[in-house]
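2.7 Reproducibility. Because tokenized structures are sensitive to small changes in the input, we list the exact sequence used for DUF892 family protein, including any N-terminal residues retained from the expression construct. No trimming or masking was applied before prediction.
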Amino acid sequence: MASKTKSAEKSVVDIYLERLQDHLSIETKTIETVLSELPSCARYETLCNQMRQDLSMRRAHAEDIRMLLSRHGHPAPAAHETVSSILNTVSSLFHGGEDNDLIKSILTDISYRSYQIASLDILILLADRLGFTSDVAMLKRLHTEENVSIDLLRTNLPNTFAEYLQKSL
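Resulting structure tokens (single pass, no recycling of outputs):
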């Protein structure tokens, strides 16, 4: 019976590490998306400022997840933003961004954030099950920051949308 429990725990650890890696992947993709969307949102001061703050938060979150992976003997890939995201940013600067994509960008952002919050929910449950108390504390902090960020986005949505409509007409 003891070996079955140890085997089951190994399985839970593997699942936890896979979920951490998945969370890092979505965080990295979110960073890339924010970098490519920033130039097209420049006309919307409140949204642009929030995106810059979120970019800093996302980079810190990615580093925290890398640290957790490393703590458990699974070093994550080095921090990077892909060449494609840099090219998207440069392309947006030349084209000035597409205003009609602002709503799509906000919806994409909300989708990423919702996924990240759900992912953190699962990670917290797994870390708690494994007794990784310091991981739980960090993951709960990231969860709180994500919730604050999405709440701010939702709070500002009516003003951003009104500004969008005013500039589109």
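The chain has one domain: 2-168.
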